[in-house]
Design a protein that fits this description.
Length: 301
């Protein structure tokens, strides 16, 4: 670390890289022009490289140009980290792990309510579709979609969604609004590809008493969010989960088709390592989360 100069000298170099003269750099730093020149010369001696080509204007040498972004990034990260630490003073961080689609569509819109109720809790959202392993992650708690079989974890039921077809008003205007569920067979159907805990179109059609092996499928999508986005764009009808289309149903950008009860066989669960559920900030988060879940469950019937 013998080549590491004083922070003030590094700051002088960082400022000088953004100016064309010692005079303008000195003005930003509130020091004299000679002080800027002296500090930069000292830095060149410490590092053993020439940083500037001196003339009527300052120009970085190739060595200076290589070092400038590193020094600039150092100060940027330092300032950001210090600001974050000051913001966190008196607050406790809670790392919540859940799936990306659930975080985006259900949890994220509700977090301002948690912040108003418990401003001392600083939530960090982490998303993955993989099984949670608290031994290999920094996450404190998680929200998982499944059947509640988490024997090594503290587990609490949150809510269960309903599944139903949704379409954009533009698509219904183009194709007409179906009067009977069987009419959906003539519509482009959007499907999420791959293995999924949520049933697909063939299961929904069996539920209404229609067995069919021929579906007018449109594109298959890799995740739930892409499927919903395609429905919003009028590309077809999606079989949606109620918790993922709350906003779209409310603002009319998607229309629910048919009031056919179809509860999802899988549900959402709050999970965490056994024992930490009694920590004060986790108790507050759990109570808030379960209250929001109960309210959502009532609206999904």
């Amino acid at each position: 670390m013998r080549d590491l100069p004083p922070t003030a000298t590094l700051r002088t170099f960082e400022v000088a890289t953004r100016h064309t003269t010692f005079t303008s750099a000195a003005a930003e730093l509130f020091i004299t022009q000679s002080a800027v020149s002296h500090q930069l010369k000292n830095l060149e001696e410490i590092w053993g490289v020439q940083l500037f080509e001196r003339g009527k204007t300052l120009r970085l040498t190739p060595a200076g140009a290589a070092l400038a972004p590193l020094v600039r990034e150092f100060f940027s990260k330092l300032e950001t980290t210090l600001a974050d630490l000051r913001e966190q003073k008196g607050r406790v961080r809670l790392r919540v792990n859940t799936t990306y689609s659930f975080a985006l569509k259900w949890l994220l819109p509700r977090l301002p309510g948690l912040a108003r109720l418990h401003p001392e809790i600083l939530v960090t959202l982490e998303s993955t579709d993989k099984a949670i392993n608290f031994a290999s992650t920094d996450s404190d708690v998680a929200i998982r979609f499944g059947h509640g079989n988490y024997p090594a974890l503290h587990t609490e039921f949150m809510f269960r969604e309903q599944l139903f077809p949704v379409a954009s008003p533009a698509l219904l205007q183009r194709f007409g609004t179906p009067c009977e569920p069987a009419e959906l067979l003539r519509y482009p159907l959007l499907t999420r590809d791959g293995a999924d805990l949520v049933p697909k179109w063939d299961v929904w059609f069996k539920l209404i008493g229609l067995n069919t092996d021929v579906l007018h499928e449109s594109v298959r999508f890799a995740d739930t969010n892409m499927t919903i986005e395609a429905a919003l764009l009028g590309q077809g009808i999606a079989l949606a989960r109620s918790g993922h289309v709350e906003k779209e149903i409310a603002d009319g950008s998607l229309v629910r088709l048919f009031n056919v009860p179809f509860p999802s066989p899988a549900a959402y669960y709050f999970v965490c390592p056994k024992g930490i559920e009694t920590q004060p900030h986790i108790i507050k988060f759990r109570k808030w989360l379960l209250a929001e879940s109960q309210q959502a469950q009532l609206s999904y019937r």
